[in-house]
Fold this sequence. Notes:
By secondary structure, the protein is an alpha/beta fold. About 35% of the residues lie in helices and about 20% in strands. The chain folds into 5 domains: about 1-30 and about 35-325, no CATH class; about 360-480, no CATH class; about 485-605, no CATH class; about 615-845, Rossmann fold (3-Layer(aba) Sandwich); about 855-1090, Rossmann fold, CATH 3.40.50.300.
Amino acid sequence: MLVIHGVWLPGGGLAVWGEESTLPARAPRRPGRAPRERPHPFAADHATLAAALGGPPGRPAAVLLRLPTRAGSPLDSPELVRTTVGEPVRGPVTLAGWRVPALRYAPDAAYALLRELEPGDAVPGAGLRHLVELAAFAADLVSRGRVLPAVTDPFPTTAPACPVSPGVRGRRHLRAVDASDVVTARALWRPLLTGTDAAWARSLAEALPPAARAAVEWTAALPHATPAPDTQPPARTGPVPDSGSGSAPAPAPARAAGDVPAAGTAPTESLPAGSVGAVGADGLAEPAEVLAAALDALADAAARAALGELRLHRGMRPGGPVPRWLAALTGVERAFTTEPAALDLLRTELDAWQRDAVGGAVRAAFRLIEPVTDPVAELVEGGAWRVEFGLQPVDEPGLVVAAAQVWRGAARALAGRGIDPQETLLAELGRASRLWPELDAALRTATPEGMELDAEGAHRFLREGAPVLHAAGFGVLLPSWWRRSSSRLGARLRARGRTAPGTVAAGGLGLDALVDYRWEVALGDQPLTADELASLAEVKSPLVRLRGRWVELDPHRLEAGLRLLRSTGELTVADLLRMGLTGDGDRTDGLPVLEVTADGALGELLAGEAERRLTPADPPPGFAGTLRPYQRRGLAWLAFLQSLGLGGILADDMGLGKTVQLLALLAGDPPAAGPTLLVCPMSLVGNWQREAARFTPGLRVHVHHGAERARGAEFAAAVHAADLVLTTYSVAARDAYDLAGIDWHRVVVDEAQAIKNAATRQAEAVRALPARHRVAVTGTPVENRLADLWSIMQFANPGLLGPAATFRKKFAEPIERHGDAEVAGRLRRITGPFVLRRLKTDASIISDLPAKLEMEVLCNLTAEQAALYRAVVDDMLAKIESSDGMERRGLVLATMTRLKQVCNHPAQLLHDGSALAGRSGKLERLEEIVDEVLAAGERALLFTQYAEFGGMLRGHLSARTGREVLYLHGGVGKADRDAMVTRFQSPDGPPLFVLSLKAGGTGLTLTAANHVVHVDRWWNPAVEDQATDRAFRIGQRRRVQVRKFVCAGTVEEKVAAMIADKRGLAQRVVGTGEQWVTELSTDTLRELFTLESGAVVE
Length: 1098
């Protein structure tokens, strides 16, 4: 296992190093006193790092890190998991110096690497993941124009520079610059952090993992390496972030001695050596300094990547300082030369610009006051509007001190903030006037308190001035009606289906069905006639008070409204839903759609109350089981969508019975409906086959998988003779042509997160399948990942969310980058009618459920597992037949152990340290369950009787999920064991806890978990129940779900059936553990061990 870590070197770029689990965990002991630094014993070498990272090449370097150390050896990072359990090491943990091989990247290359990082099988550490997030933040700032061009302090080009101590910045130059010298400076782009951006930057600094700031110093690993063409922007020279408290952020360290360029040259990227500046109380680099240096460099690289080779100085006279500076802002070479006086003038202007853009801890605020009017008047035009000025603390936006109080010297609320309120107000108003020149008139008085506006001026302020001032970080307070849709003209759509009321067209409506419609135009909930619209069109004021509320009159919208009232016609159900659920104004000349209503079932769907309004469905005659009340409502919802020809996403919480709801739906299909295709992961094919036989014995099931599966005409014949066809995602991609040639009644995708990546072959193949009804089944809350949601909804209801690029622009970016609650609400309205997700915590659900849900999970073997299983059986049966007594008992027990190891994973039997992914049906099913547990924000206990396999699980799951996984086994001492339990029980504890059955099966309270998985079985019900009771005990306030893994067709399934038949007498009849198996005859053992057909899924 390889874990890759990232540290930012202030003045030195990004350094990436790694840990290898195959290398020794302990450093070799040397006689004498411990050195200040030593080579890290399990650090990956340069070649291993380069192979794992790919992307732009990094420069080999050596980095000294301060790392947690115990007993003379560095501790493993939380992400590193070893497959072998070593002896516990005791002693205090201290920070010690360890030198590691690293690859170093200049900012441009670092930005490219972080934005495109795909480490393959390697696991990114916390520090590297944090830097990836920081690079995304830098890209977002650039995309929104929140960067400013800047210039650094000069350095001379005629004499060697004299370095200063690390940490010095600002205008204390590398040496005093003589006025006659020609100096060199660098052009760079600097992040502009105000408001929410500044708060997010502070959060990123506070959350910066220790691993990202562990560097002490660095040197070139290869002294003669050729410098890269790009250069390192230096530390910033002044505060840019709005700290919210008036204090500037901690400065980033300046270039260290080893980074100073040679005389007569601009600084190159080579940066052969350097060290960090200020160190925090914990002995590591200050988080604020590291983050400031990294964000500065990454924002500069992001801006240059976005601008490309754009020539900002085009059309300017060459040779002056400004054209040279502009050329350096986009050029490969960041440095430019000029005279000191010219550079000082440029820097003075830029400093003033930056101060204007940023502001301080107290800012100007602007409140728009509406006119006082006759409250009973039908229509009021114009009126006297006013913008009042004031001061508002950035960190206390609810406090606004009016300008009148400031001028009277009564701004007591601002006392203690270290400002002169009157000077601050004047400075802030001057800064605002440069953004909104209409403020100039108010500033002609000595003590401006506000400005008077007519209706046109107030409208310009609302539409133009307020957004500009708010974006620049000023406080803007607007009347509440301005943000309401009821203050603007909008459209209402009334649709009517072409079938009789209360009926549904044969085969459902479908997204392409046509409905008749007519438009209404309204202000909020008040409809307007054509005559009223015409009268309003004659009003010259853009703001009027109509029927007691202020509204905006847009001439273009008024004209659009008149055109809509004259239009009728027909449109598709898809267009109707899109307009009704999104408010899309594409078909209304930009007029927002306020409401869409329809008759019949379509109207219930648009109202978003379908699931609650529907009468719970009774199980159909072909369903051999019972449905809980919430499952009957789910069945009614699925049938309702089917009646409309629409697809749905059944996303009930795990354990709520999605399978039985789907099978009940299939059981209700008429005989002539046609076949249903169900696509699922390999690990679930057998489960669906068995559940169908159990709950819908009348369904004809055909399993389409395996090397001998039917093709062509033979496949078509098999499908038409079946009601339910089961296949896997991989087969669906390979047999796309055959599958697309069938007229499917319904296509169902189980574990629909398998098609979350819309560009994969399997997602494209499944979306291309023709079907009259589509259902996606998932236990994951799809609304948490918007790209996943689009892909799954594109399968269920193609085209409903529009093209992927449009969806990203309209929904994903505003929600994920900017937390836009209004857009998120709009997306919920769109998807809500088509997504049914009930949680175990719902009041309507919880009363239907038992306190503990126990289920047996049948898993299939992979082809590799099956081959090993048969080999073990053949070898051991031959030996058992020729043995007796204690030797025979030992052979039987050994056979049981080896077969159970094969069922767990081939690597457990082979002990070869090979990769785990894709080789075990149990592991694949465990991955799916873990994904659902994590997506639901819940926790799980994973029990195994094998300590070695527990270590393998911990490493694999930690690497796959990027989350810490605890592991308790017999080698863990009491203190560490207690610490693990305390951590797991804490509110922010790790979500997964692997336990060996002997070490963790008794004596612990682990009620933070509400999922228990027995990955392999002890065959003693009492022991397994005791292990389950670690979570299901006093203190547990949630339903506990217990899953017991069994491999189908193997000794595991056969023994499980024997125990289930005699559970009440298990202790007396079966005995404890597996000893009872040794007493069985050889013929019985052969029957017990032999692998049954159907146990393997490709």
